[in-house]
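Annex B.
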Amino acid sequence: MNTLRQWWRGRWTVPVVSGLLILASIVIARAFGSDAVSDAAMVAAAVVAGAGIVVKAVRALTAKVVGIDLLVSVAAVGAVIIGEYWEAAAVTFLFAVGHALEAATLSRTRSALAELVAVAPDVAVVLRDGEQVEVPAGAVVVGETVLVKNGAKVPVDGEVVGGTGALDEASITGESIPVEKVSGDRVFAGTVSRGGFLQVRATGIGADTTLARIIHRVEEAQDAKARTQAFMDRFSAWYTPAIIVLALVVGLLTGDVVLALTLLVIGCPGALVISIPVSVVAGIGRAAKDGILIKGGEFLETSARITAVAVDKTGTLTKGTPRLTDVVVLDPAADRVTVLTWAARAEAGSEHPLARPILDGAAAEGLATPGLPEHTEPVPGMGITATSDGRRVLVGNAALLAQHGLDDGGAAAVAEELAAAGRTPMIVVVDDAVLGVVAVADEVRADAADMVDRLHAAGVKKVVMLTGDVPLVAHAVGAVTGVDDVRAGLLPEDKLDAVRELQQQGYVVAMVGDGVNDAPALATADVGVAMGAAGSAVAVETADIALMGDDLRKLPEAISLARRTVSTMRQNIAVALVTVTLLLAGVLLGGVTMSVGMLVHEASVLLVILNAMRLLRRRPEHAAARVAAATVPAPRVPQEA
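Heavy metal translocating P-type ATPase: predicted structure tokens.
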């Protein structure tokens, strides 16, 4: 009974019933020669298939929208009035079949979203009062310990507090290679355990999980209109009434009502209307399955026009985890412990990313850092000044010393030598004495150089590195990665100016950064790209493009997909316009009937949809790149910060 009810409410019910009535009409006419009964069956077929069309047309009119449904409704009703029952039934039947096929194929284009929803976990096993309890995933309380066993879905966002295991994070990052998880690592709802046993402290549940935010973003993005789509909507708003006027004029001039009604059917801009949204939905859906979130159709179109990419260095081209590499003593009265201790004391009050490796280095050598300094003042682009135990401490570059009127005592030369080796040097001064130089280094990402090559292959003309680091370090990273232009020693506002300069030169600019120090440049760029967004709710919600994983190859992949999507849009528009033009010419010149015209029209709609569905296929080179990513060794040159 339930199956019958589902079928009755399904998308194919109307076309099937209408088709059977048409078949019955033809059989009755040929077998029994009963024109009255045959005509009645044909009219019934038109009513069954056309009732819904008329209802939609009336609703659209109440909203002051003249659409395709109105054209078909007028043509069908007119055909019945003048006794063209077969034409009325054929047009409405074909339109109903086309609508059902559209719905079926459109649901395929939204398959990425359906798959994301499907991976959302239903249940969770939590520890309560020392016992394992199975509860709905939404009933888990933040802070509770969730158990994830082999083969189970992770039901919450959280942090591993015990055990080890491997998780398939394809639903979040698009990467199919399982990721090893140990204590302290982050995990995401919807990922699947491929081995091991994990104890996870819940930090995000229900709508507050990364998966839920991704689903919400994809829903919004697939519904957001591209600029071309907005133009086509405005075009259709004028085109459809124009077809009605044309049909009316032709009918009055020729006195041929059938010809006028045929023009109404043939002029339906169905393929034209659907050509853009179906491409956008398919393109954004494909991107989501690959761990790339695109904000909407407008940004998809803009991404297809990107000609310059500006990238931050720290955490983008490099791993973003600098470590202490050098402690050079310059003051004869000091030693390594003294230099590193004072550097750590000053950096204890700093929010700069380079503070952590110095503090970690001091801790690794057993040096105590007595709390926060009494006073801390960051000097953008230069370093930091601090007061600790009543003494002034400077940690920064030569420009910081010059600002305070101090002689560098040869420290600038040492710093330059370290920078040439790919390290980031910082001169340490206590009161007016230059004690020495500490240096940290980061490692260039294994996929950074490949990303630059792939960006060029995808049509990007210029890749620019924007960094606040010293020029020597920046150029060392630039040499390894192969970027076209290196701009170093930049403050956040300088990065903003660099993006504007590229735009003034005629480039369409994408900016890749961490969303904090690079916020002004990200906001000004034509497309702002966030890396590793799976761990950042803000990045998922605000970035124009969010790359969920840390694989830099996803950026050229996103640009390539955007170009394919826009190309598909143009192909679809061409198919729609050529079809309508040829059909209108065929009607006016004779030879194209109402039913034949509707058949060709619906065929063009399906062709447009099927063409867009090609975007859902993963291109072979992308799959190969994912395999290669696991085997490419990281550059051995130390770098950055």
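The chain has 25 helices and 21 strands. The first helix runs from residue 2 to 8. Further annotation is deferred to the next reporting cycle.
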